[in-house]
Structure formats: C-alpha cells, structure tokens
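Figure S4 source data
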Amino acid sequence: MAISTAAHAASLDRECVVFVPERTSSVRLELIAQYEPAIVQVAGDYGKLYGDALELSERLPIDVLVSDVPTRISGYKTALFEIYESLAPAAPDVIALPASSGGFASGIWLGIRDLKRAGLIAEPPRLYLIQTATADPLTRAFEAGETEPTPLSPDETGDTIAHSIGNPDPPSGARALAAVRDTDGAVVSVTDDEIRTAQRRFAVDGGFCVEPASATTLAGVSRLADRGDIAADESVVLVPTGTGFKEMGTSEAEVATETVHRDALQDRLESLLAP
C-alpha cells in the first residue's frame, strides 16, 4: 500500500507522507523511498494508528488513506471481477485471502454482492480468510460465534514473519466476519512454519515469489482441505497480495551454492543429470 500510494502521489505531483511501523525492513523502506515521499516510522502501538489517522485528518488539511475508506473498498472489489473474467465460463468455488484489517475482504464481498444483484452469478464463492496465529482476532471471533472481533492486548500478540497482517485490532473486522458467514466460508490461522512451507510451494510449484502474508492463503487452504472443508475437485483461487521481492535480504536462510571451474562444467553437469 505504501509503495503504490507513494508512486501514485508522485505521478500526480502531490505531496505524500507515509506512515510505516518502526520495524519496517530497509528493503521495504528503499522501495517506498524511490518515489520520494516523507517516510515516518511510527513507534508504539501501530494498530492504534488507524484511529490517530482519522483524528489527524480532521485537524489538518490532509486526506488520510486508511484501510477501509469507501473508494479503496470499491477498488478492491475489482479484483473479484478480474477473477471471474479470467476463469469464465467457469467460476471459483473458493476464494482465499490473507486477512489483516478486513478491508480487502470487505471489497471482495462487495464485488460478490454486485455480481449477484446483476444476476451474473447464482452461487457466490466461499470466502476463506487466513490470519497469522500470533495475531488472529478474526479467527477467535469466528470460532466463538461473535459478530465483532475483540482487540488483542500486547500480551496476546506475538511476532510473526507475516508482519503485514499482524493486526490485533482490525477496523473492518465486523464486515469481514459478515462476509465469511454470508458466503458459508471460514476464518483460520496458520503458524510461521506453515507459512514458510507455503512460500516454498508457491515458488517451487508455481513460480511465484510472494511475501509471507500472501503465503498464508496456501497454508490456510491446505489446513482447510485436510479437515474436509474444501474438496479435492473444487476450484480454489488464492490471492497473493504482495510480492516477496520486497522481503529480499530479510531472511535468515542460507543460500546453497557451489563453485565449479569452467573447465569442469561438463563433468559437473553430467553428474547433476545422472539418474
């Protein structure tokens, strides 16, 4: 969001200030900074910045783009239209999304309702929202049968590699839960180990480099399939919302390489190709 907002502001010659968490990686900061916005790293409870931003927009002559402004939700719903357009004449049985503030889920749900009102779809796809287990107020609310999530305290919130969705107090949580229940979907949480496994599968099996938050979709669908919520013959759409290239340099994993002299390349290739 920060990268695209800064880029759009630059294209319009508008001034832009970007708020990011204090622990944002240097790689992400560099990608944002290329569009020359003012970057402010915010210390303290980042989840409460949503309310702070709304108050600031009333006091100062600025427009603040938060997760659930109506224009942003309307933009999100076009992702649903693209999914149906690309799969036509078939239709998805399941759409899986990473969940943080609940804004993206709200937009996809709005798109589903638009298509139903237009008579273009009979059965809506089931929406499954995936959270990180270290910050999963939506999962807890769904499993408890609640219509609104209860914000998690700092003691209830842990660190995760999927920091993009580590939101303990989702502002659009009630709408996200309504979207899930309206489409007979569910909310599930996954661990960092499951996310890492899903990231590797995205890369090796699909050729996609996705950030950890995006990999939660595959991790969550795998868990849902294992427990029988998703059948093997159903059409499932995973929506990876962020590239993994902006995470480069932040992993602790070692890259396995070897050095071979050019004169020995043929012998080495033959050994690699040997059955």
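Figure S5 source data
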Amino acid sequence: MENKRFKYSPITKEKDLDILIEEIGDARVVMLGEASHGTSEYYTWRTAISKRLIEDKGFGFIAVEGDWPECYAVNRFVKGYQNSGRRIAEVLEVYRRWPTWMWANWEVAALVEWIRDFNHLRQVQDKVGFYGLDVYSLWESLEQVLKYMEQRNGKAAEAARAAVRCFEPFHRDPQTYAQATAFVPTDCQDEVVQMLEQVSRRPVYPDDPEHEFSTTQNALVAVNAEKYYRAMIRGGAGSWNVRDTHMMETLDRLLEFHGPNAKAIVWEHNTHIGDARYTDMADDGMFNIGQLARERYGRDQVKLVGFGSYQGNVIASRSWGAPMQKMDMPPAREGSWEHMLHGISTDDKIILSKDLKAIPELQQTIPHRAIGVVYDPKMEHFGNYVPTVIPDRYDAFLYFDETEGVHPLHMKVRGGREPELYPWNY
C-alpha cells in the first residue's frame, strides 16, 4: 500500500509475511525484537516469522533473552531427549526466576509445541534448538557445571567446587556479592575463570555432544555473570556492555557449534537487537547484540526486525520483583514513531527500512517507545522513549495498532534481587 508518506504492507495473516521473508533473503542471522516483555502479539508474530524461517529457509535454532540452564531444559524437551519431560506446561515451570511471564506463558508454550512437532521425525542433527543468551544465572550455572563434572572429570569438578565455595558466603544473592566486592578487593573471579579453563580441557564424549557444549556454556555464564554483577555495582554502561557482549559470544558459539551453514533466529527486546549506534545509547558508551552482529557478520547477513504498538495493555510489574499485573498502555506520545504510524493508518503493518530512506524527518532521531519489565503507565511520557534513527536501527518494523498482554502461566516467583541496581530493565 502506498501512503503519501511512505509505503507499508498491512499484516493480518501469516501469508502477509511474504514481503518480510523476501527482504530477509539469504541472511544468516535474523533478530526479532519487541517493545515490551509482556505483549502477546509480539510473541505470536515472532513465532509466525520463526516458523517461516525454519520451514522455508532452514534456520536451525532460536536463541532468546533468557537464561541458559532454563532454556536448555526446553531445548532438551523440543528435541525429545530422554527424561526431558512430557507436558509443555510442566517443562515451562523451569522459569521460576522473576520475571516469570517472559518465557512461562501460553504464547511460548505454542511455540514449544510447534518446534517439538517439527522435530519429531527428524534426525538429531536436523532438530531445531532453543537456547538462552542471557547472563543472570550465576548460581544455577555453577550448580549445573558441578553436577555434570562430578560425573565426568575429577579435576574440573574440584575447580567447580572451589567456585561454589567462593560464592557460598553471599547466600546465593548476586547483589550481596556485588556490594561486598565493591568495598573489599576480594572476589571470585579467579575461581570461575579456573573452572572455565578446566571444563574447556575436559575429554569429549561423542555420545552426548550437546550436553558437553552446555556444560562449557554454563561455565562461561558463571565467568561473565561474576563480571556483570561486579560491573553493575559500579554503575554506568559497563554492566550493559558485559551482558550484550556475553550474548554475542554465546550466539557466536552456537553458530560455530551448529556448523558453517547454521542460521540463527534471535528473540530479544528492541533495545538489544536494534543497532545501538542509531540511538542515544551510543552517547552513553553502550552497544548491543544487534550492533555487534552487524559488525561481525555484515549487514547483508544480519536482519534486524523491530516491533511496536500504539496502545493497549501489557504485563509488567510496578517494581523489581513485584507481582506481575496487566496494565493499561496509553496511546503513544505525540511525535513518537508509534504516534506517527497510528496517524498514517490504524492498520497493523510491516514497514521495510529501505522504503523510509527518502523521508527527511526519519533520518534524524525521533522518540521510539520501549517498555521494560518494570513499568508505570502514568510516568510513560517522562521516559520509556528511546531517540532513534528508525531506518538505520532496523531493517524492518512490525507495527500493531492495539495490543494485548501476554498470557502468563502464573507460577510462583523464585527470589532474585540481582537486577535492583541495574538501571535498564530490558
């Protein structure tokens, strides 16, 4: 459809994704964003796009903004590994760390069911995987390494035990650890690095190659999580950059593990997948996985797809660790990207960045909505908008005029205070 301002394509059914799939072309990495962590349409349409990429273009795994141990449990389930679980809802109970609704929801359950069915009759090497890119799971990753290496490698197990002992005085609380090491020059950095070195030297067990990869990944998570929490207490851009560097390193490792022809789908917030160089994040010395992937693989091999909406409701919390709730999401701020799209038409739509290049006002920054896990609708107009050069930050954008909150599985939240000092909630 041609508008007086720019061209867009209405999106109402999966067939309407053809224009986006064509734009993706032969890219090796496709990153699918979201403007909140609690919007149903973002999950549903990312699932629809992922299915097309897997079926039509041979993409081999989905990597998400979630922790490695929990997501690996889902990976085992979708691949039908022994003792990996029988019911999807039970498997998703692994997501007990707040905010549980990000991955323990019915929209993700539908994706998991589809991947498992898709994998059912395929050889192990052809099964689609599901992995976590994030860095928060310090304790869980340490425990996974120790449990596995006690069965396999005595020297590596002792290194893992030493790392666990080092963290024990902090009572499984990364914030306590971060605060303690801010004032006392004693930390567990050496222990986790030595553990990673020992795990990396382990013998290879060809009967279970993916579990070996997972063990090394958990050790890497522990190293980078320790670094992240120490950086967090100092403030500034350091902890953000540690986190996104870890995500990029994990994506690199997954692509290498799956072979030279591997293709990856990434699900993360727009603040991670949208190239940070074209936002005010760059002014603060921050970068993200979208930028790093473009720099590493080239813009023709990496396609960044943003998501956003004008109004509706969303699942979020009032403060860190608070109960989830459905909140009204007011109409987008005047002058914002979302307000502009609503003014053009109330159609749900796909916009390709190449069709925006001739529009002068889009070659400079405009406000672009971003809602995190902590949200206050009454304060939205004083924040929640990232100055963005839209055509450069993304390769394509999916807009939904009115959206609904994601549908959580309503599980008990496992305690976890670690992000309290973290100034960004994406």
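Residues 136-247 form one domain. Confidence is low (pLDDT under 50) at residues 201-208, 415-424.
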